[in-house]
């Protein structure tokens, strides 16, 4: 919905209330949310999300709303979409992640540091989960060894 890209909130709202498909896509598979991210209008974005827009939609290039938020260099939007559950390690057609885009293309230190912190948190959580699972396996092996030998 092109109205979202050009920050025409009232027109977008009217179109949605008139029955237009909120998840209709452009020829490049961008939905209203990805287009709205380019407008940086958080109220429009929240309106779309509350009305059921697909938060996880990706374009034919692999870009999603998180990528669009990095491209327009909006930390508020980046934080919002991370909170909505968009994978920070998603990759687009050229194998770049949002953090790579923030660091190398846009050189946006604030967004880079935020995404780096989130990435570190995810890695720490994974280590913790893997450590617990390996301990369970070790304990299971120990019990099997005692009782089966």
TrEMBL record:
Protein name from the UniProt record: Ankyrin
Pfam families with a match to the protein in the record: Ank_2 (PF12796)
SMART domains in the record: ANK
InterPro entries: Ankyrin_rpt, Ankyrin_rpt-contain_sf
């Amino acid at each position: 919905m092109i109205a979202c890209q050009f920050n025409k909130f009232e027109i977008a709202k009217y179109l949605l209330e008139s029955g237009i498909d909120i998840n209709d896509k452009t020829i490049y598979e961008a939905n209203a949310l990805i287009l709205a991210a380019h407008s940086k209008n958080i109220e429009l974005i929240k309106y779309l999300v509350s009305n059921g827009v697909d938060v996880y939609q990706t374009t034919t290039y692999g870009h999603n709303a998180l990528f669009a938020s990095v491209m327009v260099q909006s930390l508020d939007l980046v934080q919002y979409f991370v909170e909505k559950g968009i994978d920070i390690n998603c990759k687009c057609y050229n194998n770049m992640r949002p953090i790579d885009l923030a660091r190398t293309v846009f050189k946006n230190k604030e967004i880079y540091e935020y995404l780096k912190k989130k990435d570190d948190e995810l890695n720490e959580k994974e280590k913790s989960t893997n450590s617990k699972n390996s301990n369970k396996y070790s304990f299971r092996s120990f019990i099997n060894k005692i009782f089966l030998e």
